[in-house]
Amino acid sequence: MAGNNEFFEALTMLEHERGITAEYLIEKIRAAIVIAVKKNYDVEDDNVAVEIDPTTGKFNVALVQEVVADEDWVSEYAEIPLSKAQTLRRTYQPGDRVITPLKTKEFGRIAAQTAKHVIRQGIREAERSQQLSEIQSKSHDIVMATVTRVDHERGIVAVDMGKGGEAILPRSEQVPGETYTEGQQLQVYIIDVVSTERGPRVMISRTHPGLVKRLFELEVPEIFDGTVEVKAISREAGTRTKMAVASRDPNVNPVSACIGPRGDRVAAVVEHLHGEKIDIVQWSEDPAAFIASALSPAKVLKVELLPGETRSCRVTVPDGQLSLAIGNKGQNARLCARLTGYNIDIRPESGYYGEEEDKPEDAPVESPAAEASAQPDEAAE
After folding, report:
1. Considering the entire predicted model, what is its pTM?
2. What rounded mean pLDDT belongs to the chain?
């Protein structure tokens, strides 16, 4: 092919409009032309030479034919008989290769269509690859999505994430009690991105603890710059979250930093979560101290770490704070267990006796909820 300025201008236009590099497109076009020549001339890859150089404006396609003895000549395009080759250059010998330039019209209609198809396919692949790369960069982040379809029967919500494509919010990742309507703007957390033949498959959630963590990163500068670290989160989406934080700077109180002046920072996160309660507690390397802090807002009198391979402890709280420590339907104890990783046995001060002690006859009678146990794996996130 002769030089074609319009062709290279089209490449530049595609690069600007589609965001696809000229190098990628050229490689796809070269592969397309090779396929077209092979099909039209019944040759192999080695018999096709394609040169595309936007710098010099070269755009050439040629057949590479092997010189063979006249009596051995069997392939019209892959080979060239010695007698014919020597009319081009007298020094040609069997085994040499002859470069025969081709003109565009020699490809024929079928070859041209094949090239166009592969080029279009290449562009689609490039766009899909770019889309995958872009959405993968947002993995473990929050994106704003628009609800496009709500399937009440199947319990799924389809959302449009702009350049991130479409995704499905399954029932298991929806916050209990939340309702969704078409056209609604929704913050979703990207759990993972998987490449498939149909493009990137994005797994999103409204219940994942990472959503809460990311919201605090956006609201609290000390978390964003690394001064305060979120060490653990346990969440029951829609009702309550516990988050343990620590500070790398002894002059910065991590809990106060997350709460913010007049509670502004935590209030902003609560608003994003539509009123979900958030307990921010001090993380500690000392398990007993951490467990006592994690049971907030209840006051803890004693934490006894129990021997054995299972991470278990017994916690004593004032009688009047037992219900607060356990929480509604055991939620506070359950979230504490998941946050700390310990099986927690909560007992009231008046009802706590050593294993070998008997409860006196005149001891207060406790309600059925006077003692409670919680395990880290209950109601897994």
Report:
1. 0.63
2. 84
